[in-house]
Amino acid sequence: MKVAVFSSKPYERPFLDGANAAPARAGTLTQHELVYLDVPLSAATAELARGCPAVSIFVGDDASAPVLQALYAGGTRVLSLRSAGFNHVDIAEADRLGLAVLRVPAYSPHAVAEHAVGLMLTLNRKFHRAFNRVREQNFALDGLMGFDMHGKAAGVIGTGKIGEVVCRILTGFGCRVLASDPLKNLVCGSMGVEYVSLADLYARSDIISLHCPLNPATKHLVNAAALAAMKREVMLINTSRGAVIDTRALIAALKRGRVGSVALDVYEEEGDLFFKDLSAEVVQDDVFVRLMSFPNVLITAHQGFFTHEACTAIAQTTITNVTDFERGEVNEANLVSTRLIASAGKSG
Prior knowledge:
With 348 residues, the chain is α/β, with parallel strands linked by helices. The protein folds into two domains: 2-107 and 307-339, NAD(P)-binding Rossmann-like Domain (Rossmann fold), CATH 3.40.50.720; 109-299, 3-Layer(aba) Sandwich (Rossmann fold), CATH 3.40.50. It is 36% helix and 13% strand. It has 13 helices and twelve strands. The strands form two sheets. Strands 8-7-6-9-10-11-12 form a seven-stranded parallel beta sheet, sandwiched between helices. Helix 1 packs across helix 12 and helix 4 (109-125) packs across helix 6. The longest helix has 20 residues, at 308-327. The radius of gyration is 21 Å and the shape is globular. The two termini are 36 Å apart. Mean pLDDT is 94; it is low at 341-348.
């Protein structure tokens, strides 16, 4: 099957090529025709997929209703996401068109969880500042003091696969782990994680790490009221989706000294910034530039997933989803539809 791979990067192509060349379940070679496109999917680029029954996209691509309609008109019948999240896809329109949407529900929860904890350690012990100082032969310790994470209260919002791993790591550090999730994870409970209300988690946590999906209920979950309810010296970590935090409210809280430190691997408007080299340009996003100006804010460019193991798993599932669709054997666990989303919402 011919597959248009939008937003493809040089680092991921070897993984996709390897997965495409691997023996399929029936013992035959998959060997789809992968058409790599550097540009993101949008209304302006959808025509590039004409004649491709399958299209693969990443988190920054635009799969809104008009774009899906253009893809369908060009012959596309399956959208294979290289991500677990699908908030960038108009699922209702895909269902209406009969366009199958398949995702990668799990690749490496350890990758994102370890990155989140790495951000905590960096913010706390100021590794990034110390690195730059020593390179300039400045060996003073002023301004680098951190705190023992052992014994601190760490709040984890969202205890799915990634949140569970974060809870396990923080428990190993000796943190008192609090959690909030509509659906309690029994594994977390067995570790001694205490499930509490969001209000309680905000009030008690020294560190808060976000691991919830982006949906109407979680958009701007961390808003002005939530930030005001947190401890003044709270450390806030977000490796989930940018819009879970109201960025303008966060900036206002930082200006007032209402937040101790912040680490973000995601950003609300990251589509115009992340996964690109803009070092020779002037960033036009004034909100992002203001965010970067705070000395207690650390930002990485959506690299939480970026490990060899995770990229291998993403590529394998992406290719398998296309192969399964071609054979009429769609894995419902990977399928995204309004029906399944509604079902999951009722069970949660």
